[in-house]
Specification:
The complex is a heterodimer of chains A (401) and B (339).
Chain A: H1 2-17, H2 33-43, H3 49-61, H4 78-113, H5 118-132, H6 135-153, H7 181-210, H8 215-243, H9 248-254, H10 258-295, H11 298-306, H12 310-348, H13 353-363, H14 366-394
Chain B: H1 2-27, H2 33-41, H3 48-70, H4 73-90, H5 92-95, H6 131-167, H7 169-184, H8 187-198, H9 202-212, H10 214-228, H11 232-239, H12 244-280, H13 291-297, H14 306-333
Classes of the chains: A mainly alpha (401), B mainly alpha (339).
């Protein structure tokens, strides 16, 4: 995982530096040529590329990911941009990620239960149509329906007041986050302890099945929990009290701003509805096919012969086995939603992660591109790891060597 | 009624075959005493000609069974849609009165976003280009945009997957690490960055997109070949002293082909949508009309609604038709396969 990260880092660095756009293109208007050369010197773009790469590596691992050259966030550091922009996209993704698997698995099981009946044909046709239509096209149609047709059909009564919560400038009550080394250290330490704790719980469960319960693991867990409480939580709470969490829904609750809260929700509705369209169809189809295969198995017939009620057969005996191939798609959907959100953010003008990323590529904003690719890669790799761990929990027969 | 009809046909078919066999035997010789002795003494012995013909009958019967499974209404609908799109693409210049030069950027032929009239049956888009003409001319490029990357992805996956799985060891390790690397990079983003390096050439974008999609096919093919490698006929070929490439491409390849053909149609739908999305972002040349670009140019807030609606519907119908054919083929060949 770590060598992969390093390989991606080098590849994106050299690719982004070989782009055929002048990175200072949009800053250059009305400049003296000497100022331009000074700026190139300051940003270190005059040096040979391998020297720049070494400097970039040094800065990357010490927590300074560079400075944005152009665009709405001109002059901000990349850390700041990602910490302001990524939470917005996560807010957009959190509703589809939770709702989509629930709806899709339910639809898949119902269509598998009454196979080749009217209900099944309806669900299958909806799934095929949902998978076939391009997501941005559906997003534009939804926007047109609610923004124009409903507005005109209700004689200009259907209108939601907007307070520019999608704009680049945040609510002035939240000052900018200043990432200090200590904060980053504590966050990383906290995450490390969390992962260790989960691993210990998992090991404990495994050991408990085979041997006697080992008290040592629980003791370690207890000590790590106390450490988390004393070391990590107090600074994090202090940090949230002063700077906010950057999740706008949480922030508006913490700082008591109801107008801002309802405004963000109104802005999140349509994008999240069109995000659910993205992954709904695929999960439904896969659940249906794996459910059909499971329902033909012998143990289902045995359960029916035993007299287990039909609802219990579907929910207990069949669904758990049918979800094994589906779980991969559900967890992989997190990463694909992050990239699929690019088109939806562009259509709705939602200034989130994908929007920033796209305009960074178009303007040749090198440090921002590298930072965004690294964040996406970290999310992709960690979701793959999570999928591997989830496999062993869902299906205990799988053992990794 | 149906069953009777089938049985009748089969009877006629068998009777014809019997007649042919009798004629052949009459012309040559009657079965001699030696063959009779063989027939009585050796258990399971048959006249070689008869067993050959039986084999052929079984072959045709299995082919018929395959087509009977394949010809469901949904697959027929899908193949009809794709055939009509191919017809539109081939006979474009007969179907429209507008040549290609009048519907690409340097020319500005008329009023933009005009409503449908006699000259323009579906109205006009940006710069007054005819919508129907742009869709018909875009059919050629859009079909190629779906087929070329998928062909590269599936073909590359077939060849590299066999090599990686059959040789194993270091070769396999290198291929698998490369696949892991491609899986860990977001593909769309790398395509966007590479368009900034190579320019907006259409063929470059297609090749880049296809070569990134090789990774998934390579993994799938590798898993198939690892199963087939342990079969008896492969071991027999090895002990017979066949060359490595002979074993790979004449023994393993034909047996791993059908599942890969299934993935072709499913991936064609995905690439169609993906390339349409890249064209929607404005990263393809404006000199080549295609449906994704039509969606981007057909502004929904203008008067002419068809300029936005029709290209999206065309994209969706093509993708749905490809998916339907893929599903039908999967049900016919191997219903247990999950793609």
């Amino acid at each position: 995982m770590i060598p992969m990260l390093f390989a991606v880092l080098t590849i994106t660095f050299f690719l982004s530096h070989s782009m055929s756009i002048n990175p200072l293109q949009s800053m250059m208007t009305g400049w003296d040529i000497n100022i331009y050369f000074d700026e190139m010197e300051r940003l270190g773009l005059n040096e040979p590329i391998y020297v720049q790469f070494v400097y970039y590596l040094r800065d990357f691992f010490t927590g300074n990911w560079g400075e944005s050259y152009s665009g709405p966030f001109q002059g901000w550091s990349v850390n700041d941009i990602i910490t302001t922009v990524l939470p917005r996209t996560l807010e957009l993704m959190i509703i589809p990620i939770i709702i989509t698997p629930i709806i899709a698995v339910k639809l898949g099981t119902t269509s598998a239960k009454n196979r080749m009946k009217r209900k099944d044909i309806l669900i299958r046709s909806v799934a095929v149509v949902g998978a076939g239509f391009p997501s941005f096209w559906i997003a534009i149609l939804l926007q047109f329906l609610f923004g124009r047709i409903l507005y005109e059909a209700t004689f200009y009564e259907f209108d939601i007041e907007i307070y520019n919560s999608n704009s680049v400038i945040l609510n002035p009550s939240f000052p900018d986050m200043i990432p200090t080394p200590s904060n980053i250290f504590f966050v990383v330490f906290f995450l490390f302890l969390m992962i260790g704790g989960f691993y210990l719980i998992y090991r404990g469960n495994k050991l408990r099945k085979r041997e006697e319960p080992s008290t040592r693991n629980y003791l370690l867990l207890f000590i790590s929990g106390i450490l988390i409480c004393f070391i990590a939580i107090v600074p994090i709470m202090n940090h949230i009290n002063t700077y906010g969490t950057k999740f706008r829904l949480l922030d508006s609750i913490i700082f008591n701003d109801p107008i801002y809260f309802w405004d963000t929700i109104a802005h999140l509705l349509l994008p999240s509805i069109s995000m659910t369209f993205l992954s709904l169809a695929g999960i439904t189809r896969l659940t249906r096919s794996s459910m059909l295969e499971v329902l033909d198995q012998d143990y289902i017939r045995t359960a029916r012969a035993k007299g287990v009620p039909e609802k219990e057969i579907i929910n207990k005996h069949a669904l758990r086995n049918a979800l094994i191939p589906t779980s991969n798609l559900i967890i992989g959907g997190v990463a694909s939603a992050l990239l699929g959100s690019l088109f939806i953010e562009l259509v709705y003008g939602y200034s989130g992660y994908g929007n920033t990323f796209f305009f960074a590529i178009m303007n040749g904003n090198i440090p921002l591109i590298n930072g965004c690719v690294m964040v996406a890669t970290i999310i992709l790799l960690s979701s793959n790891l999570l999928a591997d761990v989830m496999y062993t929990i869902i299906d205990p027969r799988i053992i990794y060597t | 009624m149906k069953i009777n009809f089938k049985i009748k046909h089969r009877r006629i078919f068998l009777i014809k075959l019997e007649e042919e066999t009798t004629i052949n035997t009459k012309n040559k010789d009657k079965p001699g005493i030696l063959s009779l002795i063989k027939f009585y003494l050796i258990p399971g012995w048959r006249v070689p000609e008869f067993s050959e013909q039986e084999y052929e009958i079984e072959k045709t019967r299995s082919k018929r069974r395959f087509f009977r499974h394949l010809l469901t209404p949904l697959t027929i609908v899908g193949s009809l849609i794709i055939l009509s799109f191919v017809f539109m693409g081939v006979f474009t210049s007969w179907l429209t009165r507008y040549p290609l030069q009048t519907i690409v950027p340097p020319s500005i032929p008329g009023v933009p976003y005009e409503l449908p009239n006699l000259l323009h049956p579906l109205g006009t888009t940006n710069n007054g280009y005819d919508v129907l003409a742009r869709i018909l001319w875009g059919t050629q490029t859009s079909l190629l945009m779906a087929v070329i990357p998928t062909g590269i992805a599936v073909g590359g996956g077939l060849v590299l997957g066999i090599i990686s799985a059959y040789f194993g060891g270091k070769v396999d390790y290198i291929f698998m690490r490369a696949v892991d690397l491609i899986y860990s990079i977001p593909t769309l983003v790398i395509v966007l960055i590479l368009t900034q390096i190579f320019g907006l050439n259409m063929m470059d974008i297609l090749i880049i997109y296809g070569s990134f999609a090789i990774a998934g096919n390579l993994r799938f093919m590798r898993s198939l070949v690892l199963q087939i490698r342990e079969m008896l006929y492969v071991k027999a070929a090895k002990t017979g002293g066949a060359l490595k490439f002979k074993v790979m491409f004449s023994h393993i390849f034909p047996n791993a082909l059908p599942p890969m053909i299934l993935t072709f149609f499913g991936q064609m739908a995905i690439t169609m949508l993906g390339i349409a999305a890249i064209a929607f972002l404005g990263l393809t040349t404006s000199q080549i009309p295609n449906w994704g670009q039509d969606i981007a140019w057909g502004n929904i807030y203008e008067d002419n609604f068809f300029a936005f609606l029709i290209p999206g519907l065309c994209t969706a119908f093509f993708a749905i038709a490809a998916m339907l054919i893929g599903d039908g083929l999967r049900d016919a060949i191997d219903p247990r396969l999950k793609i």
